[in-house]
């Protein structure tokens, strides 16, 4: 049995990951930003005992320290970190350069880079330092995005932050391998988390499904299955990988 911190575990992909880890027998710290009720709902849905919820808005620079400290204390040491929390593309943070003023541009960049990259980097640092002190192996799984490769013209800060997260994961894979810490990233295409449900209606939904030759979009449960593998000893030789997870909707050269 392992212990895991899943950031952004209150809903969507993070909730499915928390559920899959708990079903495997792991104890899970379910992190959320503001929606404690949703995090409690995730908690109630988890198999087994010993799970906790931990809040913290990753736009706050001291949040990563507080989150890791609380999760570490509650779990008696952490073995797995899933960097899943993210400020996702929403109509409210859309920032195409040709239709966005400078204030909105700066705000989108600060928030997306702060949460989706810098906070994940700091959580990884704090998590790894504790593992190194304990001389224990461990796993970091970053939830990146296909957008890092395909381009995000409406949300360039999102694409850039996710590309940074992938690159960060590769650097950490090299730096942390001597300590027995495996670091991977997964780069999902469109995934049908609740947040995305409205986009799947009508002709726009058909177009999204048509992006993949399978004729559908991915599910949070499928991402969770992949995270189960990536947080297991079988994934050791995958360390440094950025796993495309998009139903062949975008092939990298
Ligand atoms: N769904 C997709 O199509 C897709 C595709 C590629 C990559 N991804 C990535 O997968 C991850 C999860 O996606 P999702 O669709 O499940 O997202 P979601 O439904 O929007 O959930 C986002 C999660 O992140 C947390 N969060 C948001 N802002 C935060 C902040 N400032 N500080 C700390 N936590 C924060 C939320 O907590 P609260 O509930 O408390 O707000 C929530 O748990 C994200 O990193 C996203 O970029 C998703």
**H and E order:** EHEHEHEHEHHEHHE
Summarize the main sheet: 7 strands, parallel
**Which sequence of strands runs across the widest sheet?**
3-2-1-4-5-6-7
Kindly estimate the percentage of residues that lie in beta strands according to DSSP: 5-15%
How many domains, as an integer?
Answer: 1
Share of helical residues: 40-55%
First-residue to last-residue Cα separation: 38 Å
- What is the structural class? alpha/beta
- Report the C-alpha radius of gyration, rounded: 17 Å
- What would you call the quaternary organization? single chain
Present as ligands are: NADP nicotinamide-adenine-dinucleotide phosphate
Poorly predicted tracts of residues: none
Q: Tally the helices: what do you get?
A: 8
At the third CATH level, what is the topology name? Answer: Rossmann fold
Family: Belongs to the short-chain dehydrogenases/reductases (SDR) family.
InterPro entries: KR_dom, NAD(P)-bd_dom_sf, Sc_DH/Rdtase_CS, SDR_fam
Pfam families: adh_short_C2 (PF13561)
Domain Ketoreductase: 2-189
Describe the fold and architecture.
With 253 residues, the protein is an alpha/beta fold. It has a single domain, classed as NAD(P)-binding Rossmann-like Domain (Rossmann fold), CATH 3.40.50. The protein has eight helices and seven strands; from the N terminus they run βαβαβαβαβααβααβ. The protein has helices spanning 12-24, 36-45, 63-75, 102-134, 147-150, 156-176, 202-210, 220-230; strands at 3-6, 27-32, 52-55, 80-83, 138-143, 181-188, 242-245. It has a seven-stranded parallel sheet, sandwiched between helices. β2, α2 and β3 form a beta-alpha-beta unit. α1 crosses α8 (220-230) and α3 packs parallel to α4 (102-134). The longest helix has 33 residues, at 102-134. The radius of gyration is 17 Å and the shape is globular. The mean pLDDT is 98. Bound molecules: NADP nicotinamide-adenine-dinucleotide phosphate. Residues 8, 10-14, 32-35, 38, 57-59, 84-88, 115, 143, 145, 188, 190-191, 193, 195-196 line the site of NADP nicotinamide-adenine-dinucleotide phosphate.
